Amino acid sequence: MQRQFTPYFETAPAHQKLQSPIKLACWLGIAVACALVAPAARGQAPAANPPANAKPSFVIIMADDLGYGDLACYGHPTIRTPEFDRMAAEGMRLTQFYSGAPVCTPSRAALMTGRYPARSGLCGQRRVLFPDSTGGLPDSEITLAEALAPAGYRSICIGKWHLGYQPKYLPTNHGFAHYFGIPYSNDMGAETAGGRIRGWPKTPLIRDLAVIEEDPDQALLTRRYTEEAVAFLREAAAGQQPFLLYLPHTMPHVPIFASDKFKDQSPRGLYGDVVTELDWSTGEILRTLRETGLANRTLVFFTSDNGPWLAQRLRGGSAGLLREGKGSTWEGGVRVPGIAWWPDHVPAGRVNPAIVSSMDLFSTCVALAGAALPSDRPIDGLDVSPVLLRDEPGPRQTLFFYRDTAVTAVRHGPWKAHFQTQAGYGQPKPDLHDTPLLYHLDHDPSEKLDLAAQHPEVVTQLQQLATEHAASFQPAPSQLDEPK
Ligand SMILES: [Ca+2]
Fold first, then answer.
1. Which of 101, 213, 226, 345 has the lowest CB atom count within 10 Å?
2. Distance between CA 102 and CA 467 in Å, rounded?
3. What is the pLDDT of residues 87-127, one digit of tens each?
4. For this structure, is 157 an active site residue?
5. How far is the CA of 107 from the centre of ligand 1 (A)?
6. What are the CA-CA distances from residue 307 to residues 104, 326, 480 (Å)?
């Protein structure tokens, strides 16, 4: 049955949406911080001599559905990515970096809250939020922008949010001063899908809380996001207020588009063109940071929200030597590129195999900012600054992998146990494993050789870790499952 849908957008200023004491406290923190830095912030000249104790700024760039094997510096043979390669050569490439989940919405919730998505309800049977979903990231959650605000940070989000499209869920009501982008996936427009009329609205392009365009030309999105980001950085360079620029790209999520300058250029075809444009975009951001003097006080991190969408065949990416892709908790669904860059702070040219989760970015940024982690709730992220700044082994030994609210697998050290396995797409029911599958990922990153029979004591240990974790909290009600 066709679902009638009325888009719910409005244009009220962000501050009128603030209600919770936590958010008010955050904004009061911003106000106090702004007052403290106001003389510098009003200045027009670039801050050539920031104070020695200046807080670092953060730029988090996230591609959508980019696979572990899609960058030249991660081994792709035909996609040219000179800017990512240079970023890695000047910084650190992580070889065991994990997204927070194998699909968009829960992955972004993990990054933004430093918590497993089951804690915030941003997971469910529907897997992601759709244009007919009325849920979103609850007001009670504390986003990275909100956690940084009391330390004087100004935050901006440019790109695909996917944590709720209604005004109360948009970035400007989750601690970000501004938002520009498409609020959910670029395949969720009004067009028919498989002959079915979905009744969804035309794809909205939003500035702050207002829809400013419908069905924007997607070939121009990467360029427009980049221009917005560069303009923000130039403005930020004129003052001394630390900032968070969160840039979750719409590409290379299918349908993929590249602008004329990049189209028909890559031997990999259109997918390669799209990745090369993301490469250019990242180069523009790093160049702007260098030109404005922000480089040595800005940590830039590049990653992807989940593995490649293999069901899209040549329109989707590659997980390289990893098994499966988006939607699956095999390695290809969750292990993604992770590159850190911060001249004079992140040592150049390092490749670090530490196990790091996108949830750790939350805790690491908060620590580097001298801000406080939320103390009234469990935070699953760990401070990995010893990895990023000193090339040390990571603090993380254990990481749990979820599909909906089920813990499907756990990694502990080099071992990974699967309790249930399922292809990301095309396999309606999971394979349940009474005896979990066990892989040694240092020896066998492709998860080919099940060693459960040879190492029953490891299976028992990992089962116990997963049982204790699952019993430690009750998943929050799903924000995804019922279009209301
Ligand atoms: Ca995605």
1. 213
2. 21
3. 999 999 999 999 999 999 999 999 999 999 999 999 999 99
4. no
5. 8
6. 10, 4, 21
The whole-model pTM stands at 0.90
Length of the chain: 484
**Distance (Å) from CA 451 to ligand 1 centroid:** 31
**What's 182's DSSP letter?**
-
How confident is the model over 231-251, as a mean pLDDT?
97
Whether 104 sits among the annotated catalytic residues: the reply is yes
CA of 307 relative to ligand 1 center, distance in Å: 7
- pLDDT of 20-77, one tens digit each? 444 444 444 444 443 344 333 333 344 445 565 689 999 999 999 999 999 999 999 9
Given the residues 26, 104, 123, 365, select the one marked as catalytic.
Answer: 104
Q: Identify the active-site residue in 26, 123, 157, 162.
A: 162
Q: How far is the CA of 96 from the centre of ligand 1 (A)?
A: 18
Query: What DSSP string describes 429-454?
Result: SPEEEEEEEEEETTT-TT-----TTT
3-state secondary structure of 56: coil
Q: How far is the CA of 253 from the centre of ligand 1 (A)?
A: 7
Domains and CATH numbers, the chain: 3-7+26-41+54-396 (3.40.720.10), 401-471 (3.30.1120.10)
Amino acid at 454: Q
